[in-house]
C-alpha cells in the first residue's frame, strides 16, 4: 500500500514526516504551557508579605513592627532629642515609633496595601543608609554621649569646687577643741575611734573579697 501511494504521489513521505513533526512540536508547547510556572506579577511580592506578616490584606502596627525588627529597621532609641530647627539627618537609625509617627500611624491603625506601599520607601532608605547596622549604631551612641556630656570648663570647675569643699570640711575639727575639757568628750572620742576602726576594716574587707574570688 505504501509503495502504491508513493507511486501515486511521490512527495507523500515528505509531507507525512512534516505533518508528524508539526504535531509533535505543538504538543510539546502545549505541555510546557500547561505544566509551566504561573506568571509573576508586581503585586505577587506584596501579597506574599501581607500573607506572611498580616491578616488578609492588612497589617496591624505590631505586625509591621515585627517585620521591621526582622530587617533590623526601626531599632533606634525613642529618647533621642533633635534640634527644633534645621534639616534632620535621615541617615540616622530611627525608632519604630518615630517612623510610625512620620506616617501618622497609631496603635489602632490598620496598614493596607496602599499604606504599606507608602511605607516601603522608608524601609528602603533605612536599609540603604545602613543607619541601624551595629557598628553605625555604636558610633552614633558615642557621638550622642559626647554631645550630651559636660564641657571641659564644667569638668574643671566642678572638680575644683568639690576639692575645695572637702578641704574646708577638714577645718571643722577646730570646732571640737572647745569640747575637749567637757566630761562627755572621752565617750564621744571613744565612739569615733570605734567608728574609724570599723570603717577602715570594712573597707579593707570589701577590697580584698573581689581579689579572692
From TrEMBL:
Please provide one cellular component term from the Gene Ontology annotations of this protein: plasma membrane
Question: Which terms in the Gene Ontology molecular function aspect does this entry carry?
Answer: monoatomic cation:bicarbonate symporter activity; zinc ion transmembrane transporter activity
Give the membrane topology. Multi-pass membrane protein
The membrane-spanning stretches of this chain are: 155-177, 189-209
Cellular compartments annotated: Cell membrane
UniProt keyword list = Cell membrane, Ion transport, Membrane, Signal, Transmembrane, Transmembrane helix, Transport, Zinc, Zinc transport
Say where the protein is mainly found.
membrane
Annotated signal peptide: 1-32
Tell me which InterPro entries the record gives.
ZIP_Transporter (IPR050799)
For this chain's UniProt record, which GO biological process terms are given? Answer: intracellular monoatomic cation homeostasis; zinc ion import across plasma membrane
Keyword Nucleus among record annotations: no
Lineage: superkingdom: Eukaryota
**Ion transport in keyword set:** yes
* PANTHER family listed in its UniProt record: METAL CATION SYMPORTER ZIP14, SOLUTE CARRIER FAMILY 39
Q: What is this protein called?
A: Putative zinc transporter zip14 isoform 1
Amino acid at each position: 500500500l505504501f509503495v502504491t501511494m508513493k507511486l501515486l504521489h511521490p512527495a507523500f513521505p515528505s509531507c507525512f514526516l512534516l505533518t508528524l513533526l508539526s504535531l509533535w512540536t505543538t504538543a510539546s508547547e502545549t505541555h510546557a504551557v500547561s505544566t509551566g510556572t504561573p506568571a509573576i506579577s508586581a503585586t505577587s511580592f506584596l501579597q506574599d508579605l501581607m500573607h506572611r506578616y498580616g491578616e488578609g490584606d492588612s497589617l496591624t502596627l505590631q505586625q509591621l513592627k515585627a517585620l521591621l525588627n526582622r530587617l533590623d529597621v526601626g531599632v533606634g532609641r525613642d529618647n533621642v532629642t533633635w534640634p527644633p530647627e534645621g534639616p534632620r539627618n535621615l541617615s540616622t537609625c530611627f525608632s519604630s515609633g518615630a517612623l510610625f509617627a512620620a506616617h501618622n500611624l497609631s496603635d489602632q491603625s490598620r496598614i493596607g496595601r496602599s499604606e504599606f506601599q507608602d511605607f516601603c520607601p522608608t524601609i528602603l532608605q533605612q536599609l540603604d543608609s545602613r543607619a541601624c547596622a551595629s557598628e553605625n549604631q555604636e558610633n552614633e551612641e558615642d557621638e550622642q554621649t559626647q554631645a550630651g556630656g559636660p564641657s571641659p570648663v564644667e569638668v574643671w570647675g566642678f572638680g575644683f569646687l568639690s576639692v575645695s569643699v572637702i578641704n574646708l570640711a577638714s577645718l571643722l575639727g577646730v570646732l571640737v577643741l572647745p569640747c575637749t575639757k567637757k566630761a562627755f568628750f572621752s565617750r564621744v572620742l571613744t565612739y569615733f575611734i570605734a567608728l574609724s576602726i570599723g570603717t577602715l576594716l570594712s573597707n579593707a574587707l570589701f577590697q580584698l573579697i573581689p581579689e579572692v574570688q
